[in-house]
Amino acid sequence: MAEAVRSLERAFDLLEHLADAGGEMALSELTEVSGLPMPTIYRLMRTLVNKGYVRQEPSKRYALGPRLIRLGEGASRLLGTWARPVLARLVDEVGETANMAVLEGDEAVYIAQVPSKHSMRMFTEVGRRVQPHCTGVGKALLSQLSDQRVREILARTGMDAHTPKTFTDPDALLAELDRIREQGYALDDEEQEIGVRCVAVPLPGTPTLTAISVSGPSGRMTSEAVPDVVPIMRDAAERFAKELSPTTP
Hints:
The chain is α+β, with helices and mostly antiparallel strands. It has helices spanning 2-20, 27-34, 38-51, 67-94, 136-142, 147-157, 170-183, 226-244, and strands at 24-25, 54-56, 62-64, 97-104, 107-114, 129-130, 186-189, 196-202, 210-217. Helices cover 48% and strands 18% of the residues.
């Protein structure tokens, strides 16, 4: 029984290694990063291939399989449901609309929102997809990727200028992502829409790259207010990460 549980743990570890590597790895690469014997990895990967959670490409490299999509979609829906109390607390504390978004493919997708109680508030409907380079949550999501992955995404999506403040140069955006990693938050300073300012933080410990944000009219969400908002958001992100962390029964 213990060996069966250990095999299950190793199988999940291998899936996570594949995800961390962009979804595809060779058997030798899996051996190197996992530290497991090659025969053990081969046996586990064959089981995952047979179940559809992994596929083997013609090149013999292993890739994440299509059966994982259904699991991921279900987890994303639940993630948005679990996030609502966290977002509601943010609205109470900050007074502006709170959002959660994940990176799906090359786009930031909003999966949860709690609106501000102000009559003038920001509405971003759940399910909306946006380019990541011009939004607070998008930049918070990109900051969790390597520069190479970011360049690959930008090459596919382009960098449309939504306002005069939008980043349209990849090198300038990468420098901005370095600042975000250092300071721990992203700022959309009217880059998606004139008159709207947004503060976002990455959300660790989630099943996919995730970020939360608060956004409001720049007249209320002033530059002077940002230093007060950031600690509140970091605290919310840490609390939610703890809620999502595995617990031993």
